[in-house]
Each structure stands twice: as C-alpha cells, then as structure tokens.
Design brief:
single chain; 221 residues; alpha+beta; Aminopeptidase; three-stranded antiparallel β-sheet; 7 helices; globular
C-alpha cells in the first residue's frame, strides 16, 4: 500500500490543521467524503472556494483575455462565446466535481472575499493533473504560487495521489516558474496544440515523497 508520509503526518494534516501552514488549512469539513464537493482552502492571502454555477458570470467577465487564454489547450473555445463560462461550469466542471473526478476552486483575496479573481483545478487525468488562470490585474504578485501550493498539498495529503503531473507550453514562463518553485522536474517535451497555435510544450512532475520532503525542508528553514 502506498504511504506517501507517516500516519502521524496525516493526522496533523487533516485534524490539527490550525497548527499547519496557512496554505493547507481546510476551513470547511476536512473529513468529508472525497467523492463530493471539496472543502474551502486558504493561504496567507487567498480563499479557495469550491466552484459554483454562480461563478460563471464573473468568469465570463475576467477570463476571455488573450494574455490568459493563449497558452491554454485548444479545448478552450476562441473567440470565447457569450455562454462559454456557463457551459464550462454547468456541463463540465460541476458534474465532474460531483463524480469525484475533478476539483475546482475560485480564488478570492481575503481582503475582498466577494470578488472572484481566478480559478484553480485538479483533475484525475492521466496526462495532466492541475490547471489554473488568474485575472490580469492580479498577475505578478505571487498569488498563483500560493494557490498551487495549497491544492498540491490537497492532491497529495487528502486525495493521496502518488504523482502530480502538469503540461504547459514552453513559452508560458510564469507557469514554468511556479513548477520550478515547487520543486517539480521537467521530464518530457513535445509539440502541443494551444489556443495560440502549435507550440513546443513540456511535462513537469513531482511525487508525493518529493513534495512532502520539500515541504518539510522549507518549514525548517
């Protein structure tokens, strides 16, 4: 049986969350049924709230920007249709969450929790496990790194997955830097189809063992 970390680590992560770094603090029902909606997470500056159908409206306003979509896979329609966000949440994201196949959180600043600023997702897809986007006004502030740390902890610590794999366009420097900061390894290159065309692309990975070792090392420094 795969045990990515000792039993006492699991107890600390899931039950004594008030003593953990903010990025893994689960603020709603940590001991929930994994096949249902995920809990709310938080970081030092962010609230990660499980996606709802009402998030379609702010997504439709924030998301359809070339700077956001150009390095996304071609399954994202472009030009983005007027009902693109509604279709995504209603027909894809929320049903997948109900099935326990995907986990989607909206990103909100703690200082302004009523305002959605982005989205981050985990998927049980063999080739790609995490995706995200952030509204343009909040770029360059390290917010997505915080969000990625929180959901990566969730992927390994709660869902007990052994490996996190991400695929990205090589030109997506901001996403690449997040992978580097997280201690992920570049394991493969390929040609991928993106909204902006066919581009060189990369596969990055990190195992549960590597993640928790890196996590403890950071906490000790």
């Amino acid at each position: 049986m795969f045990l990515p970390f000792p039993a006492h680590w699991t107890v600390c992560r899931l039950l004594l969350h008030s003593f953990l770094p903010l990025r893994f603090r689960v603020t709603r029902g940590a001991l929930y049924n994994r096949l249902h909606m995920p809990p709310q997470l938080e970081t030092a500056r962010l609230l990660l709230r499980p996606a709802e159908l009402s998030d379609a409206e702010p997504t439709q306003l924030l998301f359809p920007r070339w700077e956001i979509v150009r390095y996304l896979a071609t399954r994202v329609p472009w030009p983005y249709p007027p009902d693109g966000a509604l279709t995504f949440y209603r027909d894809h994201a929320l049903p997948a969450m109900e099935r326990g196949e995907e986990w989607h959180w909206t990103l909100r600043l703690k200082s302004e929790p009523a305002r959605m600023i982005g989205l981050i997702s985990l998927m049980r897809n063999p080739e790609h496990h995490r995706g995200f986007w952030l509204g343009l006004p909040w770029h360059g502030q390290g917010l997505m790194t915080e969000a990625c740390d929180a959901v990566t902890d969730y992927w390994f610590g709660v869902l007990r997955e052994p490996l996190l794999r991400t695929r990205k366009a090589a030109a997506n420097v901001a996403s690449r830097r997040i992978s580097e900061k997280q201690g992920m390894r570049l394991v493969a290159t390929f040609e991928g189809e993106y909204v902006s065309g066919r581009l060189p692309a990369e596969v990055w990975e990190i195992t549960a063992e590597e993640w928790f070792l890196c996590d403890r090392t950071k906490n000790d420094t």
